[in-house]
Specification:
Layout lengths: L11 H13 L4 H7 L3 H4 L1 E4 L2 E4 L7 H13 L2 H9 L26 E2 L2 E2 L1 H19 L13 E5 L6 H9 L12 E5 L5 H9 L5 E6 L6 H18 L17 H8 E5 L2 H7 L6 E3 L16 H28 L6 H15 L4 E6 L7 H13 L17 E4 L2 H4 L4 H6 L5 E9 L7 H27 L22 E8 L2 H22 L8 H16 L10 H15 L1
Parallel strand pairs: 5-6, 5-7, 7-8, 8-9, 10-11, 10-12, 12-13
Antiparallel strand pairs: 1-2, 2-13, 3-4
The structure holds 6-O-phosphono-beta-D-fructofuranose.
Function: Catalyzes the reversible isomerization of glucose-6-phosphate to fructose-6-phosphate.
Organism: Vreelandella aquamarina
Main location: cytoplasm
Length: 567
């Protein structure tokens, strides 16, 4: 980490990179390939079922040498050790960031503040496993005695995006020999997703997982209150329940909440206060950040979809990347190299747009997950010492399934005015398990089509017009500038283990960049103000506070709402 006074832009390697960039930024990517036939070998690394191709970044061997020197000067090796050993790297909240501890094997040892936490981590996994097994065995009964069929996760941000992304990515891994339980996600405070579920599901067989680290997030609590009142309203009026005898003894609200809610939080007192039964509470620690929390009890929905065996495979894959991150020399360290590519693009080539483009429909939520992981972690402008930065930090990051994005925003990537760096992600193998030979043949042909598009797009982004074989003059509106850098991550196959490695790769890439930018990736003070202002604004809308101090726009918007309410 940079020292108290020296910010990264004062480090010798940063100065060298600035000079180096003055020359290299005028060299087209196609020429870098022309000058180095061995470019693929130089800039591709493999570990934990992943292949990372960084050869289409706009850099050369000298660039990488200076970037590695920057990593050393910024203290990346020591910071990695501090992160993994549980030092209080989250400086503004004075706590460790130990998401990596959640995936340590049971025989590992990690003492944090005097306590060996590995035992507690595995006790927590065992408690989660017991709940999963009861639901998978059809033994978890609702208040009227029926087995649960639908589980709705109520959460937002890190209490939603990780489980949402992983359950979609690994839906192929649903165990076959279990009582069918469908998992759904409701996150938005406006109730849209929840309203749909309440209109379709039977309250007798619906269970809600109230996932919230703080247990104060209004998005989640408003969904939870609506769900609770729906359950109580429907389950205490037997008339709605034709199979329940009208003479059956009344079902208490306490029994309903007990049998139809599980809580997952770092705040057990708040879970109990809300009404979650103590033995239906799953805990996690304050030293697990929300956007880093899918590896523990927040991952309950994941385990419900893929089973605990596959959940443990996911953990093992992430742990393999953790071990690599700890042990590999910087020049062969995938998270370090991916992080340094980002530093080079943002701080020396001034490329501040970054697109995530998976070429596998199962990863449809991967970009959304990375939006929070990257931008909530590194969307900062104050150093760990509280100094305003005078260099760029996290780029604007967005994404979409690559094949679909080709029909959405690739026009901008190819012929727009914005430099954009892209991450292409694809599995090398797919559909080998499809039983019907004819269908398997078709699907494998579609997999080849997707890979061809993935590889072709990064090629055209790199080469521009030179990627086209036809020669001859073309009008300007049909010309391709190229020189857009990209990384390609190939998974041997999309499995729980390789997905775990992939997610951990990005977690650690984010950390490496934070170390170099000398910012804290583990807090998120910027979102607190928005929540506070929303509470004030709601009080004004509800007539509890005066509108007089509102700006003209806010006042106009609120008055428009009031007028609509009167219609
Ligand atoms: O967006 C702010 C934030 O605090 C995220 O960091 C977090 O993942 C999300 O809200 C939900 O918070 P909680 O899990 O405490 O409900």
């Amino acid at each position: 980490m940079a020292s108290a006074t020296a910010t990264p832009d004062t480090l010798p390697a940063w100065q060298m990179l600035s000079q180096h960039a003055q020359a290299l930024k005028h060299v087209h990517l196609k020429n870098l390939f022309g000058d180095d036939p061995g470019r693929w070998q130089h800039f591709t690394r493999q570990v934990a079922g992943l292949t990372l191709d960084l050869s289409k970044q706009r850099w050369d061997d000298d660039t990488l040498e200076h970037l590695l020197a920057l990593a050393q000067e910024a203290g990346v090796p020591g910071a990695i050790e501090a992160l993994l050993s549980g030092k209080r790297v989250n400086v503004s909240e004075n706590r460790p960031a130990l998401h990596t501890a959640l995936r340590l094997p049971a025989d590992a040892h990690l003492e944090v503040e005097g306590e060996d936490i590995v035992g507690a981590v595995h006790d927590s996994l065992a408690q989660m496993e017991r709940l999963v097994q009861r639901l998978h065995a059809g033994q978890w009964r609702g208040a009227t005695g029926k087995p649960i069929r639908h589980v709705v996760n109520l959460g937002v941000g890190g209490s939603d995006l990780g489980p949402l992304m992983v359950t979609h990515a690994l839906a192929d891994y649903r165990p076959s020999d279990i009582h069918p339980v469908e998992v759904h996600f409701a996150s938005t405070m406006d109730g849209s997703q929840l309203a749909d579920y309440l209109s379709r599901f039977n309250p007798e067989t619906t269970l809600f997982v109230l996932s919230s680290k703080s247990f104060t997030t209004i998005d989640t609590l408003s969904n939870a209150n609506t769900a609770r009142d729906w359950l109580i309203g429907r389950l205490t009026q037997h008339a709605d329940l034709p199979e329940v005898s009208p003479h059956a003894k009344p079902i208490s609200a306490e029994l309903i909440v007990r049998q139809h809610f599980i809580g997952v939080s770092a705040s057990p007192d708040k879970m109990s206060e809300w009404g979650i039964a103590p033995d239906h509470q799953l805990m996690f620690w304050e030293w697990v950040g929300g956007r880093y929390s899918l590896w523990g009890t927040i991952g309950l929905p994941i385990a419900l979809v893929i089973g605990m065996e596959n959940f443990r495979e996911l953990l093992a894959g992430a742990h393999a990347m953790d071990s690599h991150f700890r042990d590999a020399p910087l020049e062969d360290n995938l998270p370090v190299l991916l992080g340094l590519a980002g530093i080079w693009n943002v701080n020396f080539l001034d490329i501040r747009a970054h697109s995530i483009l998976p070429y596998d429909g199962r990863l449809e939520y991967f970009a959304a997950y990375l939006e929070q992981l990257e931008m909530e972690s590194n969307g900062k402008s104050v150093t760990r010492q509280g100094q305003a930065v005078n260099y760029s930090t996290c780029p604007v990051l967005w994404g979409q399934l690559g094949p679909n994005a080709q029909h959405a925003f690739y026009q901008l990537l190819h012929q727009g005015t914005q430099p954009v760096v892209c991450d292409f992600i694809a599995p090398l193998k797919r559909y080998d398990e499809v039983e019907n030979l004819d269908t398997r043949r078709h699907l494998k042909s579609q997999h080849r089509l997707a890979l061809a598009n993935c590889f072709a797009q990064s090629r055209v982004l790199m080469l521009g017009d030179d990627a086209l074989e036809e020669d001859g003059p073309r009008p300007e509106h049909k010309r391709y500038r190229g020189n857009q850098p990209s990384s390609t991550v190939l998974l041997d196959k999309l499995t729980p283990a390789t997905l775990g490695s992939l997610i951990a790769l990005y977690e650690h890439k984010v950390f490496v960049q934070a170390v170099i930018w000398d910012i804290n990736p583990f807090d998120q003070w910027g979102v607190e103000l928005g929540k506070q202002i929303a509470t004030d604004t709601q009080a004004i809308i509800d007539g509890e506070k005066s509108i007089s101090r509102m700006d003209a726009s806010s006042r106009g918007l609120i008055e428009a709402f009031w007028a609509a309410e009167q219609e």
